[in-house]
Design a protein that fits this description.
Layout lengths: L1 H15 L10 E5 L3 E6 L4 E4 L7 E7 L4 E8 L10 E6 L4 E7 L5 E6 L3 E5 L3 E5 L6 H12 L4 E6 L3 E6 L12 E2 L7 E6 L3 E6 L7 E8 L10 E7 L11 E5 L6 E4 L5 E4 L3 E3 L16 H9 L5 E8 L1 E8 L13 H4 L6 E5 L3 E7 H6 L4 E3 L8 E2 L3 E7 L6 E3 L2 E9 L5 E7 L4 E6 L10 E3 L3 E9 L6 E10 L2 E4 L1 E5 L6 E9 L9 E11 L12 E11 L5 H4 L3 H35 L2 H13 L18
Parallel strand pairs: 4-6, 4-11, 5-7, 5-12, 6-8, 7-9, 8-10, 16-18, 16-22, 17-19, 17-23, 18-20, 19-21, 33-40
Antiparallel strand pairs: 1-15, 2-14, 2-23, 3-11, 3-13, 12-14, 15-22, 24-25, 25-28, 26-30, 27-28, 29-30, 30-31, 32-34, 34-38, 35-36, 35-39, 37-38, 39-40
């Protein structure tokens, strides 16, 4: 009974895992043929300090090659001093190639006298003899010359150094060297990895192999530059359907750029793009985080031969890949396996339909089995030298918004199945009416028996050629086609047509509204017939009046408006003057009435100051005693 239970346990375990290999048996080793470039801010020793007078940056480069590249970027900020920033570089190589950008103030560079110095935006340069080779002596030399040192970095065999000048360095008051110092925000360097370590689970040469590339970052940060992965086949051609597989793992804030001429499958964390596809970003998957869990994940997918690589801070990795060996597969590489095939497609649309055309070359190179839109029932049609997909704005899971129509292209291929978002915006069409052939003043009033001039403009984009089909005036069910349509010279972004329009109507016809309509077609060649999915239309509402009609019909002209305005102003001014005259006349009369009596009384009083009054007034009497 125990033996039976043991057999059942082993059988269940084997069924649960198709490749019962222990992830811990991945043998650690130094791997040959793999190259990696790392970029980080770690130095052998270094320091920073906040200075008050002059910014001084010191680089002590040990064991560099023949050429050292240095990119210096000035930060956009208010400088603490008017003195020029200083850069001291000590190196053993022969050529110093410097790029200086974004610098608001002068830069002074000190370097050994045996160096050949090249620079864009050349700074002030000074050759120095006998610069100290050790970091302590070089730091002391800079402090004695300038008093303060902003940043010091000792680097071993860098290929390129990126230095940011003008950063806020915190509150440190002196630069004291520290081992394994990180110059975060100030300096980063690129290094060629001296050796690449990993582990391997070996299988036979006829097995498909899985490559796990695990790029770690002690201090992950968002980066707009993807990690570049180049895969070179060592025994191409690789047979489609028997491809190896590459698993790319890093923190979610990092993306990938994959370069290869050969066929293999991919799973990647974060977004990734394949150079053969152009700039289209593909969505990744969630992958385990640790070495053991990644290997277990790949074992569960049926791979028995696995190569695991773990690299810190890598920005570029080149991996040799051995294709699956098969008997009799000795044919030499063909041209098709040696060139990169780009995915080329075009979209054109109006407000109600979208059409996608895809060149066949890419899909033939990748043995594509099916191409659909987001709705798998919307499949591509073979159109000879291309594939074509068509959808309405309401079909095939198409989404519509103010910018246009949107869907997803689904491509099924043994090597690289993937999905890609596609969008299309209709061309912009503008219709205008003018009163003269100079096309200076736009109008919306069309007078009968008088010429008017129209202009149609349509935006031009790649894959969206536009042709004018016709323009006509629609008035109360009647249709009048315009004449003398002429296409003007195209620009890179616009195509324009002009036409002549003269509407005729009986003399007693009253004013009415009409619709000027122009139809266009998304087509290489002009044709009177245009399918609905390629049809564009623009319209303009116009008021139609009789030539010489009264102001009641056509409204007031500018002269009439100015005359009425001036008349109203004149009447108002005269009315104001009349009211002012009446007011002043009335006011003067009221002031003059009591004046004479008061004056006589005053004069009488003044002429007889010592005599008693013997005069009488209507209101008083007087007698002498």
């Amino acid at each position: 009974m125990k033996a039976l239970q043991l057999m059942l346990f082993v059988l269940c375990h084997a069924m649960g895992r198709p490749n019962p290999v222990d992830p811990g048996k991945c043998e650690a080793q130094v791997l040959d043929g793999i190259t990696a470039i790392q970029r980080h801010d770690l130095t052998k020793q270094g320091c920073v300090s906040q200075v008050s007078r002059q910014e001084v940056y010191v680089l002590n480069v040990i064991g560099s090659g023949m050429v050292l590249n240095v990119e210096v970027t000035g930060m956009d900020k208010q400088r603490r001093s008017d003195l020029p920033a200083v850069l001291v570089i000590n190196m053993k190589g022969h050529v110093l190639n410097m790029t200086v950008t974004g610098f608001p103030a002068p830069l002074t560079v000190h370097y050994p006298d045996h160096i050949f110095f090249m620079a864009t935006n050349p700074p002030t340069s000074n050759k120095e003899k006998n610069l100290p080779a050790d970091s302590e002596g070089l730091l002391q030399w800079a402090q004695e010359k300038y008093g303060e040192v902003t940043s010091f970095s000792e680097l071993q065999d860098p290929q390129t150094i990126y230095l940011n000048v003008g950063r806020d360095l915190g509150t440190r008051t002196s630069c004291v060297l520290q081992e394994n110092f990180r110059s975060t925000g100030i300096l980063e360097s690129e290094f060629l990895a001296t050796e690449v370590s990993g582990c391997q689970i070996s299988g036979s040469s006829s097995m498909k192999k899985a490559y796990i590339l695990h790029v770690t970052h002690p201090f992950p940060k968002p980066s707009s530059t993807p990690i570049k992965v180049k895969v070179d086949a060592t025994n191409d051609p690789c047979a489609v359907g028997d491809e190896n597989m590459v698993f790319l793992k890093s923190e979610e804030v990092y993306s990938w750029l994959i370069q290869s001429k050969h066929s293999f499958k991919i799973e990647a964390s974060g977004e990734y793009k394949i150079q053969a596809f152009g700039d289209y970003m593909l969505q990744g998957v969630t992958l385990p985080d640790t070495k053991e869990s990644l290997i277990s994940y790949v074992l569960d997918k049926g791979f028995k031969s696995i190569l695991y690589l773990e690299l810190a801070d890598s920005i570029s990795v080149t991996v040799p890949m051995a294709c699956v060996a098969k008997e009799g597969n000795t044919a030499p590489p063909t041209m098709s396996t040696q060139k990169t095939v780009q995915l080329v497609y075009c979209t054109k649309c109006n407000d109600t339909h979208m059409e996608v055309t895809l060149e066949k070359t890419f899909f033939q190179a990748h043995n594509t089995t099916e191409i659909t839109l987001e709705d798998p029932d919307c499949k591509a049609m073979d159109n000879g030298d291309s594939f074509k997909l068509m959808t309405s704005s309401e079909g095939c899971a198409t989404k519509k918004d103010e910018t246009g129509l949107h869907n997803t292209l689904q491509i099924k291929a043994p090597a690289l199945p993937f999905s890609m978002p596609i969008s299309c915006s209709p061309p912009l069409v503008q219709l205008e009416l003018f009163d003269s052939p100079e096309f200076n003043t736009t109008v919306t009033v069309l007078q009968t028996d008088k010429a008017a001039y129209g202009k149609v403009s349509a935006s031009m984009e790649p894959c969206k050629p536009v042709q004018l089909t016709e323009c006509f005036l629609q008035v109360e069910g009647e249709r009048q086609v315009v004449s003398a349509v002429r296409q003007l010279v195209d620009s890179n972004t616009m195509r324009t047509w002009t036409f002549h329009l003269e509407h005729r109507a009986p003399p007693d016809t009253a004013s009415r509204l009409g619709e000027l309509i122009c139809t266009l077609c998304l087509s290489e060649k002009a044709s009177p017939e245009c399918p609905p999915q390629s049809l564009l239309q623009s319209s303009l509402t116009v008021t139609i009046t009789r030539l010489g009609s009264t102001d009641r019909d056509v409204g007031l002209g500018m002269a009439s408006v100015l005359g009425i305005t001036f008349g109203a102003f004149l009447i108002g001014a005269l009315l104001t003057a009349a009211l002012w005259y009446i007011y002043m006349h009335t006011r003067s009369s009221n002031k003059m009435q009591p004046g004479p009596a008061m004056t006589r009384e005053s004069e009488s009083s003044s002429a007889n100051p010592s005599m008693g009054s013997t005069q009488s007034t209507p209101c008083s009497t007087s007698s002498r005693a």
